[in-house]
# Entry
Amino acid sequence: MKNIIEVKNISFKYPEQSEIFKDLSFEIKRGEWTAIIGQNGSGKSTIAKLIDGLYQPMSGEIFVDDLLVNEENINKIHKKIGLVFQNPDDQFVGATVEDDVAFGLENQLMSTDEMHTIVEKSLKSVNMWEYRERVPESLSGGQKQRVAIAGIIALAPQIIILDESTSMLDPLGRKDIIDLIYRLKQELNLTVISITHDIDEAALADRIMILNQGQLVEATDPNDMFSNEDKLLELGLDVPYTVKLMDALRQQGLDVPHRYMDEGELVKWITQLK
Amino acid sequence: MDNTIKIDHLSHLYDDGSNNPVYALKDVTLTIKDNSYVSIIGHTGSGKSTLVQHINALLKPTTGELSVGDFKIEPKTSNKNLKKFRQHVGMVFQFPEKQLFEETVIKDIMFGPLNYGKSESVAEQLALEAMDLVGLDSKLAEKSPFDLSGGQKRRVAMAGVLAMQPEILILDEPTAGLDPKSHREIMDLIYRMHIDRQMTIILVTHQMDDVVQYSDQVVVMDHGEVVKVGNSTEIFNDPQWLIQHQLALPSNAEFAYRLSQAGYQVPGNLDNIWQLAKAIIEVGEVDHE
# Structure
């Protein structure tokens, strides 16, 4: 599959701070779901901002859909990428749900009719159409994130970056947003990058990248990643619940296969013990 | 001093602009024992935050009353009396690092003690102790809090509350947005405060695994009411009930529930992963015999 994002030998530092990235390179394939995990301060969120062109690397190049990320291309880059941030309150700009989604479309030179059609379609796709006249204060965090996602979908991006977008939500709100993104990814053929601390969320990805102090220490699929749990724990990260349970079962003498199983698979495997 | 918290038929009404007063809290009666570790759970909007804001005297009841030791808050209590009370009850808000504002870490942490009338030197001493407690290197004292990492900022904010030496500590989602390692460190720190300093801990959280691991008592809220109080075994032994109240299950209980749905019943107390693993193996063996 073709790469949609190519990060080539970039270095980056914030003013008056030490270097975060030094010669960092990686690619992301079109249509893949990639999770980026790592400790606070590992550079995860900075990556998102570099890809979106909000910051410029000191050296090296980033390509998004074959387009070099620079000032000249910034508007084209922004059209290709939708960013969902952590705090739902920080991204709500309209007075009502409908206005908020329409806001992003206003400088797109389209007719009012066309705009209404897109707003309706986008809100329906996140199941928020019936809330269109509501004000942000009357919505839950999860509902606000849905509206933010509708605003992004309305602009028809190719890539969605979730920057800890579920970390302020309760467990059900979290699951809801992840299920939604999963569905939208299939329907709209999106590339998804999720920056997260939630290892169970990362386990859903096609590929997981670990950042540690600005270095890419590993990039592989969940099966591979979770077969080496010591490494994750050493890096201050967590392992999925099923990995911990398989470990506990092994230590009590049960012969459990040495491969990653998600909850459904592990339940199935256990039921055949009887 | 005995810091038992007694909440008696407390209701809190607010006007949402439609002239129909809405109950944020409805007839809440609850006792929280001195030196206990209590978790308050409930879905978003269930009234958890409103309840703890009463315990911190940030809100006054519309009807009913609340007392902590000898101190009582009623609808008619004057605001003047609340400040002294708040000194005993520390509150760490959600994403507390958003409230950092001073030029240096030490000044930020000293703000609370100074505000409650401590001298500059005493405040500084308290601030340094608090930094030590939360695991912040004293070399960071003169740094700007804004130059620190997310996990460190959170610690500075917590140190600011601990420097006031509260006897009751309320924490609203203290580890939201932190990486797993910082999460464990902050939860350990809170537990140490509880054990070493006999602090009463009131934890508002969605993280059910923490609820099981740490709390003596669990309070479940829904629609502004307390719907269940018990220890974690009592609260989590009824998955259906929790799902009805839009609550997540702790990992072990959740997995056991999924097993039972698949026809593999695992009995007993499943507070930790070892007990669950053992029970899974036993069920498998019994059926082979």
Notes: The two ends of chain A are 43 Å apart (CA to CA).
